[in-house]
């Protein structure tokens, strides 16, 4: 099996999709399994080991949901040809199973043997697969957080082609210009000579979820507020008020977030560039964590 074929197989996994709804369950499971291989565990991984870790990942990096289903990706990834079980006779991968069933039967899973062997002998391929999964499903601002959470260390391999949706190279400049080169939350606007420092163009509806490279789907944010936005620490309502999660706490929380709660962000210079309510609603439903603070 050629490396490019392996990448294509990972690229083509089926995830549940409905009007931009996020379903990162399979991607996070695959990243967990890649971390195990990198640490020398190429064998089957018990569901008992996967369940608590995958649930934590879905809480931290998945959409806000009342119920978290870690059994679904563990079973359904096999339908993509990327997962096998120690007891396949106990499972029909078209059906759903309870956590209790998987635990009581000591069901374990892993990537197919041929893929595992390629990933073991070629660390750069493993890195490329991990990077592909991240690029397809998560904004760059939180890639390292996810890698740290799954215990993966990757090295970018420019020699391997990873087909992903192309971005408009003018998106950043257009968004920064629309917001007059300052953070829409805190007004940060530092330059070193003529170079703009730590100011970024954030997608409100993530590029990975089909969000367009247009000003109405963009915010100019400093690097810190960009990351906090992508992690769901705050969001915007349709009136462009900043709403902070009631789960935010700790040192620096007031300085970076709480003091801005309920305040209006700095709007773009043209009304035609105002964030679309469709995209801010997507962020509220798919990224924002917890409830709104009262103060």
Automatic annotation (TrEMBL):
Residues 183-237 form the HNH nuclease domain. One of its GO terms (molecular function) is endonuclease activity. Residues 4-153 form the ScoMcrA-like DNA sulfur-binding domain. Keywords: Endonuclease, Hydrolase, Nuclease. It comes from the Bacteria. It holds the Pfam family HNH_2. NCBIfam families: PT-DNA_restrict (NF045808). This is Restriction endonuclease. It comes from Adhaeribacter arboris.
């Amino acid at each position: 099996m050629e490396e490019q074929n392996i990448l294509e197989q990972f690229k083509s996994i089926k995830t549940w999709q409905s009007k931009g709804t996020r379903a990162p369950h399979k991607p996070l499971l695959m990243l967990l399994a890649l971390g195990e291989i990198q640490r020398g565990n190429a064998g089957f991984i018990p569901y008992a080991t996967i369940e608590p870790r995958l649930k934590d990942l879905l809480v931290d990096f998945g959409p806000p949901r009342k119920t978290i289903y870690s059994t679904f990706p563990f079973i359904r990834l096999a339908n993509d040809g990327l997962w096998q079980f120690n007891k396949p006779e106990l499972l029909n991968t078209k059906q759903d199973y309870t956590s209790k069933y998987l635990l009581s039967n000591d069901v374990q899973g892993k990537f197919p043997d041929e893929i595992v062997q390629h990933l073991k002998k070629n660390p750069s391929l493993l890195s490329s697969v991990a990077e592909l999964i991240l690029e397809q499903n998560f904004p760059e601002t939180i890639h390292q957080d996810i890698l740290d959470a799954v215990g993966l260390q990757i090295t970018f391999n420019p020699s391997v082609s990873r087909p992903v949706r192309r971005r408009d190279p003018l998106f950043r400049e257009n968004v920064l210009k629309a917001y007059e080169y300052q953070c829409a939350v805190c007004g940060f606007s530092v330059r070193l000579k003529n170079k703009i420092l730590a100011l970024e163009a954030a997608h409100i509806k993530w590029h990975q979820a089909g969000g367009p490279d247009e000003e109405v789907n963009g915010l100019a944010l400093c690097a810190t507020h960009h990351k906090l936005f992508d992690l769901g620490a705050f969001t915007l309502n349709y009136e462009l008020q900043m709403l902070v999660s009631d789960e935010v706490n700790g040192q620096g929380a007031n300085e970076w977030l709480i003091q801005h709660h309920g305040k209006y962000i700095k709007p773009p210079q043209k009304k035609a560039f105002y964030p679309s309510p469709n995209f801010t609603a997507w962020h509220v439903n798919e990224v924002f964590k917890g409830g709104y603070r009262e103060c």
